[in-house]
Amino acid sequence: MVVMESQQSDAAGARLAAAEFLASDCPWADRDAVMLVVSELVTNAIRHTSGWWRLCLRACQGRLVLEIDDSSPAPPVPRAPDLGGGGGLGWHMVQRLATCLEVDPHAAGKTVRATWLRPVGTGIPQPADGFREDGLREEGFREGGLREDGFRDARDAEERAVQPLSQ
User: By CB neighbour count within 10 A (0-12 exposed, 13-18 middle, 19+ buried), where does 44 fall?
Assistant: First the structure.
């Protein structure tokens, strides 16, 4: 999980932290799409609110969730794009790049939540392999969801044990 706050960082720092998180914890995600959404949401929070922002990225059970909290309760408003350099493209891109997009107003401002689902059949271990329900690693598991003995779970170990060795 990555959590960054406006007092700690800026948009460039948020992008760097997001890139590192994706590389280590969520290699199946569309890096370009996620990075663009991080950039747009953090920049919008800086540009369109007068207070703080907090970015949180987490991967759990086949989902990547990006949340940005900011001090404004006003929801993002799509604008007609100005192709002459006046902006208006960001929110439209965010809406198209995320699998799911939610805006939740609350007493201190709002949360914008973008979610991506892990594609099926990528050959990359499921985030649930070696992770608890809260997204933290199970005891006895190493990076990549493998147990210390090199097997993903007991079923994987049994299947390998009964397969004949090729000569």
Answer: buried
Residues near 15 by beta carbon (within 8 Å), at least 6 away in sequence = 35, 38, 39, 42
The span from the CA of 126 to the CA of 62, in Å, is 6
Chain position carrying tokens 């760097």: 16
**40-85 pLDDT tens trace:** 999 989 988 887 999 999 999 899 999 999 999 999 888 888 888 7
Give the chain's largest Cα–Cα span. 68
Q: Please state, in angstroms and rounded to a whole number, the distance separating the CA atoms of residues 130 and 14.
A: 27
Dist CA 102 CA 72 (whole Å): 15
For the chain, what is the mean pLDDT? 78
Give whole-number Cα distances, 106 to 32, 85, 114, in Å: 30, 33, 17
Residues 53/112, Cβ–Cβ less than 8 Å: no
pTM: 0.69
